[in-house]
Amino acid sequence: MTYKEEFIAFMVRAGVLVFGSFVTKSGRRTPYFINTGNYKTGAQAARLGDYYAACIQENLPGGIDCLFGPAYKGIPLAVAAASSLYRNYGRDLPYCFNRKEIKNHGEGGAVVGYQPQDGDRIAIVEDVVTAGTAVRESIEFFRSVARVNFKALIVSVDRMERGSGACTTLDELRREYGISVYPIVTVREIISFLHNRPVDGKVYIDDTIKANMEAYLAAYGAN
After folding, report:
1. For the packed helices 207-220 and 187-194, what is the interaxial angle rounded to 10 degrees?
2. Where are the domains of the chain?
3. Which residues lie across from 162 on neighbouring strands?
4. Which residues contact 143 (CB under 8 A, 6 or more apart)?
5. Best-predicted range by mean pLDDT (96-105, 119-128, 214-223)
6. 118 in Cβ contact with 147 (< 8 Å)
7. pLDDT tens-digit readout, 160-189
8. Considering only CA atoms, which of 219, 126, 216 is closest in space to residue 173?
9. Rounded mean pLDDT of 193-211?
10. Averaged over 71-95, what is the pLDDT?
11. Does 103 qualify as catalytic in the annotation?
12. 146 close to 120: Cβ distance less than 8 angstroms
């Protein structure tokens, strides 16, 4: 299997990619849900870092100086991805993350880890982007840190849904900030791989669930 197919099976086995009836933050009723809060073991963290690293290596074999993980969910993702990049590809990229609360004692500061410098090329590591709020906040946050260049956004899944307009939230971020966006997988790749294909003997996307997912994309998918 490709790393993308392995990642899809990994999400299902971890209980992160689930199917049924759920309501998103935007109020949309969706037939599938991605709950990254269900990652909870060291083995899962290591493998998750491997998938992010594979995506970064494939799409960004060079040209970035630092990985940034927005607090809170982005923190372990950036650390795991940086560790895997070194372990599997010999790339020793620094990483950093922001504090939710500014520390005014000890070393102080709003950034933990590598301290970005003017001109640094940054890749943001996130889980699933819905409205893009955390990404926009990260870019605005850095205006008071250094004049960095946001080169890329790495996410686990592109749901391929409309944002505030006719295009996806990821496309909105591309247009607003000139940032490249690379998902490990898209929802279309999930459907293609899992439709009537069992994982550990169980079919997660049968014809009915596929039809529900196609209907959802027809209603809320981006043009």
Report:
1. 160
2. 3-220
3. 168
4. none
5. 119-128
6. yes
7. 988 777 788 888 899 989 999 999 999 999
8. 126
9. 98
10. 96
11. yes
12. yes
As a residue count, the chain comes to: 223
Which one from 25, 40, 100, 105 is the annotated catalytic residue? 105
Percentage of the chain modeled with pLDDT above 90: 71
Q: What is the pLDDT of residue 102?
A: 61
Does the annotation count 195 as an active-site position?
A: no
Cis status, amide bond into 72, omega within 30 of 0: yes
At 101, list the tokens: 């609360």
In angstroms, the CA 18 to CA 12 distance is 7
Has domain 3-220 been given CATH number 3.60.10.10?
Answer: no
DSSP code at position 152: E
| Contact yes or no for 73/35 (Cβ under 8 A) | no
Residues 6+ apart with CB under 8 A from 62: none
Model's pTM, two decimal places? 0.92
DSSP bridge pairs for 111: 98
For 173, the enclosing helix (H) or strand (E) is helix 169-177
* Residue 25 binned pLDDT confidence (cut-offs 50, 70, 90): confident
Contacts of 55 (CB under 8 A, 6+ apart): 3, 154, 182, 183, 184
